[in-house]
Design a protein that fits this description.
single chain, alpha/beta, seven-stranded parallel beta sheet, six-stranded parallel beta sheet, 21 helices
Amino acid sequence: MNLSKDIAAKFKKLGIDSFLELSLLIPHSYEDYRLHSQLLPQKAQLIDATVESVYKAPNSIQVTFFAHNLGYTIQGVLFRPKPYMLHQFKVGDRDYYYGIIDCKQGHCSMSMPKKVTNIGKITPKYKTALRNDVMLRLVEKYLTKENLLSEGINAAIADTVLQLHFPNVETLDARELNKTSLEALKYIELYSYMRLLAGKRRYFKALKSSSRNYAPWTETLPFVLTDEQIKAIEDIQNDLKKDVAAKRMVVGDVGSGKTMVILAAAYMMLPERSILMAPTTILANQLFEEAQKFLPDIKIALVTNKTKKEDLSAYDFIIGTHALLYRELPNAALVMVDEQHRFGTLQRNMLEKLVSANEKRPHYLQFSATPIPRTQAMIESAHIDVSLITSTPFTKDIDSSVIHKSDFSTLLTHIKAEIAKKNQVLIVYPLVEQSEMLDYQSIDEARGYWEKNFENVYVTHGKDKEKEQVLMDFREKGDLLISTTVVEVGISLPRLTTVVIVGAERLGLSTLHQLRGRVSRTGLKGYCYLYTNQQKSQRLEEFVHTTSGFDIANLDLKFRKSGDLLKGLSQSGSQFRWIDFAEDEKVVKQVKRDLKI
């Protein structure tokens, strides 16, 4: 697409890069500059009129017109007129004027008449960064069927969207977009977006491919993997066979058994080396322990800040925190990142490059416990392959409920009963320190009460340098943990049965779901209490009746529109204008077919 400097500057001002994106900037209204011989009730219309008199009052201009096309006199009124407006109306001049005409008891008036030159046409009105006349010229010159077809969409969709910019009478009469127009806008928006995503995907030769079958390993396990775990493992097996470096994201709900998929991938890659990076020492430790248990015959290393430097080339599977980025790493044919959203893009790329050889790259798998709507997963797959694990190996038994101040004594009774059973309780506060903005206690204000009334109380938060040690001590010896959302991801607390989330309405539903996922990890009866000062919250009420993370993700969409995936900076706020992740799976499938993704 070769544009002149001037036009490229206009595209930049509009925030667009293609003719398709230009077509999405549809008019917000139309002005009908055709001449009618009858009055159009409640609609602006054109008159062919001679100015009979002009009277200038302190805050208005009153103009008497004789409308030749209607055959009667109309009183025009301009309120708080700008100085240039006076020059548009000269007694004796015959011109075209536009405005809404209102007739009462034989007397007709036109509010804010304006002089018009573009006669005989229906003119679109745009709300963009450009002036309307400039935008009109841009659309008329560049928004052609030929240009739209050159970007790959089909003729029917091009015709539908062009009709919105070059309207006929039917378009003008439509008070809102019809279904066909809406589908066309959704299609074009998604087509532009997914084409851009697919264009960003780069293919590299793989360092090594692998054809090892996972089945002999699964037979050694003391449990049976779920169908979705097997499906994710088979997706990865197919990836590892190719000589193109894989890029796959495995998205699994809290407790869906992603760890076994990670271990299966490392097993299938043998005898080649695998590296796994986890966001915290606790999580790296847990994964290391699981790997030792279920991959007993391979050499596994654990690398954290506290590990002494050693030659890692003797190991088949290296598990570590971001400390891996600061070590001499041997080449690895497979790189995996757990809880990938906890690492910056820079860190993820660094790890990949550390173990690459020239233009060859390792296979790359990332794992996330933050479920995304299925439609979003389909869109993401233009950029990276996606596997979803929506079921869990066993059904958790967790009661969720919304509670208020009046329920505090009942809550205390429950906490004491759980601790008496040697179970653990987590209380999550919104802030560490006191705030005038928030009518909830902070950790600093609340901890005194809990420490005075209970034994074995542990306290931590995001800025606490010792948080990992506190969590490990709590796991072994604690009854009650007071924390911020720092425990949202990662650590396994087998005895934790109750979580109380203070100021729950302030958190996203996916964060609430992650926190709820901390309890009942070993099949114990679990409880999740959402404490709020709000009398009614539809969001929280719907949350307590929803258990699947993927349903939660759709619920989150309902209450908070999805983020801009491509820019990747914001998770909410900035959003698609037409596409709705919760509704438009059919459109996504169509776009994927047409783009051959």
